[in-house]
Structure formats: C-alpha cells, structure tokens
C-alpha cells in the first residue's frame, strides 16, 4: 500500500468514525452503555489505523509528520475523551445531588474544552 493510499484510507476511517459517533449519540441508550460503545468504536479505529502503518515506510518525512501529528492524534483524542467520560460516569463520588452535579458538570466542561483545544492543534 502506498503512502497516499494510507493517508486517504486514514481520512476515510476518520469520517467513518465520526458518522458512527453521531449515530451512536442519537441512539437512546443509557450513558454508560453509550460511552462504552463509543470507546470501543474509537479503539477499533485506532487498531485499524495501527495495522495500516505497522510495517509501512512513508515516502516523505512531511507525510509521516502529517500522519503522526495530525491524523493519528484525532483518533487518540476521541479515545481519551470517551475513556475519561466513562470513568467519570462509572466512578461518581457520593454526596448530595447538587454537589454531584457540580463535580460532573465541571469535569465534563473540562473534558470538552481539552478535546476542542487538542482537536484544533
């Protein structure tokens, strides 16, 4: 497989992951189940991506930098986001509803903010 084909397939895999995420987010599933599914989808996409480049030598340094600095981090960011959200949901602290709500809202705001910052790098 050529480097151009890998880059093209990586973009297609990214678009496919985004479509799958949108579809899963529209489903009426409990939050834990939804984020488990999203985490599995992101993990599966990363595995496919790793398989594509495991034994590949890039044609040019610029293409390699583009892949590892732009394309691959998109997938990793989604994986990190969903794993942190899932961890937050499954390990809720005990306390009053207001305190719990404030902690969860603050953590979710931070996660979404961090994700947007990394996404725009």
In short:
By secondary structure, this protein is an all-alpha fold. It contains four helices and no strands. It has helices at 3-26, 31-53, 61-90, 97-119.
Which parts are unreliable, with pLDDT below 50 for 5 consecutive residues or more? none
- Profile the largest sheet: none
User: What helical percentage do the residues reach?
Assistant: over 70%
**Total DSSP helices:** 4
The count of β-strands is: 0
Tell me, rounded to a whole number, the average pLDDT: 89
Instruction: Give the CA-CA distance, first to last residue.
Output: 28 Å
Instruction: Note the run of SSEs as H and E.
Output: HHHH
- Provide the structure class: mainly alpha
Query: How many domain units?
Result: 1
Binned strand content = under 5%
Shape: elongated
Radius of gyration: 17 Å
Pfam families: RteC
InterPro entries: Tet_reg_excision_RteC
Protein name: RteC protein
Organism: Epilithonimonas bovis DSM 19482
